[in-house]
Amino acid sequence: PDATVVGVDVDPAAIGARWPVAAGVVGDAGETARAVSALLAPVSRPDWRSPDLAAELAAADPFADLPVGSPGDAIDPRAFMRICAGRLPRGRTTVVGVGHFGGWPNLLLDSVATDRSFVAPWEFGSIGVGLPFAVGAAVGRPDRPVVAFEGDGSLLTGLGELDTLARVGAPVLLVVLDDAAYGAEVRKLAPRGVDPDLARFPGRDLAAVARALGVPAWTVTDEAGARAAFDAVLPLTGPAVLHVRVRPDVVQERF
User: Fold this and answer.
1) Helix (H, G, I), strand (E, B) or coil at 93
2) Catalytic site residue 161?
């Protein structure tokens, strides 16, 4: 909290536009970082990229201290991610859309984030782009299955992309994390004194919509259902949808 923040950007108008800064530098971020580093004394970091650190990371369990609980009508998203961690193919491309739901796969799932195998289409801050990016990733790398995470509100903004997925027939597993709301907006409206019900909507049978368009789909509301769905859908040979009804009261602080 006492850090001095300096903004660096080639565009002067961008400095401090999103976050308050104490000072600004107009310049290329990489060149500026190298120039600052040249002025600082060398710092020894013996633990960075060491075998001991690699072993510690490999043994770490991101789910160890999470209080996970699922009522009968909705699964805790952390419990679902724990099942995903054990069932999703390691050699996959992972696509995570924009929204509160994205915090769960981003923080709790391991992925081989090399060779463009992790796609985060957040550049425009737009919801609804996860599925079209996933189709593109599958077409671009047909040798690698794609697992895409989207929210229910995000999918509703572009339902036509389900038809694109059906027609292309690419091996894309679309995981819809459904909290019956625009989850990020629910959490942003209330502190501003605005009724969060404006960002909620009735539950929809998105699995039925997918099946109507020719995409196999399963609805998940508990851990047993999640395991059964993965038994049915894996190994992934074509498009599929998991419509996962998640607890809306579980909040991801770092989305």
Assistant:
1) strand
2) no
Closest CA to 103 of 69, 149, 157: 149
Beta bridge partners of 96: 149
Q: Which residues pair with 241 in a beta bridge?
A: 174, 217
**Helices marked H in 141-182 — which ranges?**
152-156, 160-168
The residue from 56, 123, 150, 185 that is catalytic is 185
pLDDT in tens, 50-61: 888 888 888 888
Asked if residues 171 and 138 have their Cβ atoms less than 8 Å apart, the reply is yes
> 55-73 burial, b if ≥16 CB within 10 A, otherwise e?
eeeeeeeeeeeeebebeee
How many CB atoms lie under 10 A from the CB of residue 240?
22
Of 181, 193, 134, 186, the closest CA to residue 156 belongs to: 181
Average pLDDT in the chain: 90
Structural tokens at position 75 = 């699964």
